[in-house]
Amino acid sequence: MKKTVKQAVKKRTGTAVPAQTPDRATGPKPDTPPDPRPFADLSPDRILNAVESLGLVTDGRLLALNSYENRVYQVGIEEGQPLVAKFYRPGRWSDAAILEEHAFTLDLAEREIPAVPPLVIGGQTLHRHGGYRFSLSPRRGGRTPELDRPQVLTWLGRFLGRIHALGETLPFRHRPRLDLASFGEEPRAYLLAAGWLPPELRNAYASVSAQALEAARRLFDQAGDVRQLRLHGDCHPGNLLWTDTGPHFVDFDDCRLGPAVQDLWMLLCGSRQEVAAQLDQILTGYQDFRDFDYRELHLIEALRTLRLMHYSAWLARRWEDPAFPLAFPWFNSPRYWEERILELREQIAAMQEALQ
User: I need a labelling partner for 2 at 20 to 30 A (CA). Which of 56, 123, 137, 233 fits?
Assistant: First the structure.
C-alpha cells in the first residue's frame, strides 16, 4: 500500500549536494594507480586507432566530454552516427566489475528502461587497445531535467522503480557496497593520514568528522536492516538527460549495492516542505513498480554526509592527475577545509534532528 511522504516523514531532509561532475570516483578501496598521469599518452591518434581497431571507420572528429575519473570522447564515424568512447582509469575497477556494470545496463535497456548500455561488438563490450580498456556506446542527447515540475519527478520515479525492481533480482558480486566503512571511515582515515589537512585545521576536522560518522552510524542503526540492491549509485541531475520522450539515465560507472534511497535523494533540493513534496511526487511514480521501504528515509542525511566526506578524499587521491588542478583549483586551500568543517557541522545538526 502506498504512503505519502507527508505521512512518513516529518523531519528535515535538507538540500541536495550540487552535482560536481557526472563521473565520480567511488571504488571499493584506495585505488590511486601507480602512474599519477594515467592518461598521459592517450593521444587523439590513439583514441581514434582504438575505435578503428574494432572495424569501425572514424571521420577524424573528436570531442572530449565532461569526465574526470575516466576519459570520455564523442567520436565521429563515417557513414554512421557519432559514438561515445569511454576509456577506463587504470587500476580502478577490475574487468569483472566493469562487465557487471555493462550487464546491468544491457538488462535495463532490454526491458526498455532508458539506460545507455555499451555496444556489443564482436561479442564483447569491453575492449583493449594501446594499454587501455575502453567501451563504445551510442550518443544520446538531452537536457537537464526540470526537477521543479511534479510530472517530471513522477516520471523519473517510475523509471527508478523499474531500475530497482530489476536491481533487486540479483546482487553484484564484483562491485562494492555503499556503507559507512567505504564511504566514510576509509576516506576520513586517508585524508588524516596522508597530510591533506592544514596543521591548524587537522584537529578540528578529525573531531567533527568523527562526530559526523557517529551520527551517520546511529541513523543507519535507526533505519535497521534495509535491503541492499543494485543501484545507479550516482543519480544526480547531471547523469540524467531529458528529452521530449522522457529521460536517459547515463554513467553507471558508480553502480553498486546499496539502499534504494541513494538513487532518490540527490534529486531533492529546497526547504523541508519542498523536499517532502518532491519525494511525494517521485515515490508516487516509484511505487507503481516497486514498494518503497520508508525506513530508508532515515538514511538521507547520513548518505549526504558520507558523500561529502568521500568527495574530498576523491579529489585528494586524484590530485596528481593534471586534469584535477585545472578543473578544481579551489581544492586543498585552507578556505576549502574550513568550509568542509562547517559543512560537516551543519550535517551533524541535520542528522541529530533526524534522530529525534
Answer: 233
